[in-house]
Amino acid sequence: MSIPAPPAGTRGMVLGEATVELLAPCCRMVQLLDAPQDVPFFGKLLQREIIYRLLQGTQGDRLRSVATLADQNHRTAKAVNWLRENYEKTVNVDDLASMTGMSRSTLHHHFRSLTAMSPLQFQKQLRLHAARQKMLTWELDAASAAFEVGYESPSQFNREYKRFFGQPPMRDIHALRASG
């Protein structure tokens, strides 16, 4: 069976309507947090159901394209996964391309097609979201959160955070806490 690639010019990320059939196993997955002893048994089953529901949804073709081993998107997904697991590390795009078996330009092309960002932009967003989460949950100050996620300069972190979230880190965190 040939898996069709997403149409040319489609965006790297998309939004879609969540169905009841998809939300039900997601809710059950969250409920497993109250019963950690059940995770080894039900966790994998629920993951499989969620994946099945996603593949049956409107973006199923796109997801199948990413998951297909013979496809360039699979190799790009390896880079995405590596960045998610190692966002705090310094990234050498040539090493990332080598790890995926692609040239630097091919990786950039496919990465942008899949995520609508370059690998470095993607890493920056991962770092900023992780820092925000750490400030909210661990009550870290901005400089500590910046270092935790791999920034070497707190002032650079503050500039990028403000540009991305619209206000300086601690003002944003205070606003989030006040609204929650």
Word description of this protein:
This protein has 180 residues and is an all-alpha fold. The protein has 3 domains: 20-58, no CATH class; 70-116; 121-179, Homeodomain-like (Arc Repressor Mutant, subunit A), CATH 1.10.10.60. It is 67% helix and 0% strand. The chain contains 10 helices and no strands. Helix 1 runs antiparallel to helix 2 (39-56) and helix 7 (119-137) crosses helix 8 (142-148). The termini are far apart.
Quick rundown:
The chain has about 180 residues and is mainly α.
Rg (C-alpha, Å): 19 Å
* First-last Cα distance: 48 Å
Helix content: 55-70%
The sequence of SSEs as H and E is HHHHHHHHHH
Uncertain spans, ≥5 residues at pLDDT below 50? none
- Discrete helix count: 10
Q: Tell me about the biggest sheet?
A: none
What's the number of domains? 3
Q: What is the name of the CATH superfamily of the largest domain? A: Homeodomain-like
Structural class: mainly alpha
Average pLDDT number: 89
Shape: globular
CATH class of the largest domain: Mainly Alpha
> What percentage of amino acids are in beta strands?
under 5%
Count the E strands: 0
* CATH-assigned fold name of the largest domain: Arc Repressor Mutant, subunit A
CATH architecture of the largest domain: Orthogonal Bundle
Keywords:
globular; 3 domains; Arc Repressor Mutant, subunit A; 180 residues; mainly alpha
